[in-house]
Design brief:
Length: 500
Amino acid sequence: MRFPRSSGILMPVFSLPEGPGIGDLGPGAYRFVDFLQSAGQKIWQLLPLGPPARGDSPYSSLSAFAGNPLLISCDELVHMGLLTPEELFNAGHDTRNTTTVDYEKARSSKKPLLQAAFAKFRSSGSDELRRDFTEFCERCDVWLKDFARFNALATDLGNPDWSQWDPALVRREQSALDAVDERLAVEVEFAKFEQFVFASQWQKLKAYANQQNVQMYGDMPIFVAYESVDVWTNQELFCLDGMGRPLVVAGVPPDYFSETGQMWGNPLYNWDRLADSNYAWWTSRFRHAFEYFDILRIDHFRGFESFWEIPAGAENAIGGQWKHGPGRAPFDAAREALGELRIVAEDLGLITDAVHALRDDLGFPGMRVLQFGVDSEDDPYHRPDSYPVHCFAYTGTHDNDTVLGWYLQRLKEGTENSILSRYLGNAGDPVHSMLVRSVLNSAADSAIIPTQDLLGLDTIARINTPGLPEGNWVWRCAKESLSESLAADLRRWTEAANRI
């Protein structure tokens, strides 16, 4: 499907200003929506919102359906009548902006407050709130019951790797599950409560954004983490051995991000078993995602055409092999159940003609990234003056350096060239603003600018370096950076590009 000509900003929730140690769904999120509206932007692109399984990466989640409790706003809990301002003050709830995300501070600050809110909900929650909670649990029972049990168990045992649990739990014997539900009843209900609060706050924020004519653009990783409730409860849908351990894992071969490829470690799907149910698990996942987002980016879309299969015990991704994916079948099944799918295909990396054909056959726009477009005159694919209308255009993604950091590195290496110079026409203008405007002025239906590129920040503000296990997912935006003058500049550029 085609998207109207418009533009937006990529801003992870964890990078928002305010919130103790981490951005959240509170006042800072609403102020960001106001900034988008003032700047003439119609899209807020986010990174995945799930609870991280390891390394605080949003692309490795304990659940394909649950939300990250660290993103819950304690200020909003006051508005929900579950905390008082005095409780926030006494808990040292500090919303002063930090320059980087402090996950430990966020956990130590929010967990006691969430537990206090839960205790108040159980003892004196309003009838309306209790009714909403009951309705939420019933509506989401298909995933919520198992997630809450999994979360309570992982916390109780100090280990989300379910293959190391008692064999009866690994096999999900009903008597073992019933014993957990009885022994950890309060912990299971608390996990459900956290998801109820997250969903309530998210839907309130999304409704506000939509009222301001801003669409929420979500991100769905194609794979799920091994240490996830999804694999534990659906072991037959993944390539596992008799003990529940992965036989093969996901990744990508060597490319411009990594000389040895990337070994992600996610278990691969048993696509034949998924096909037996007409991809019911995927349809359920898409249904849930479109309750949260207006547009959905499928990360590693090429995995539906073919995927890189790596032996589970390999040292790196070099020794993997390509295997055929399910093609369009999961999307056809979802369309039959849900209607039109507003999906963007992440088609970056080593992409074949077959992947392009699948994307086009499904009618999904792909992605074009300026940083990939200046190395060869013979390869105009990612150059702004060559973008087709049916695509989403970027200066860079969360996996790239900032556009200014990228430019400065090219200067340092002496790789600035005549192609890049075409987009740097006015010597008096900042480099980042010229590159941003070149993407805005392209033919692409949708243009997305990472916040750091809009602000002209260098490499220190990079979100993620693929293959680097530490130091990612920590950049935070300063509150004062999202100024009225910046909004006015962006609106002017957006109007000049005919995107308003």
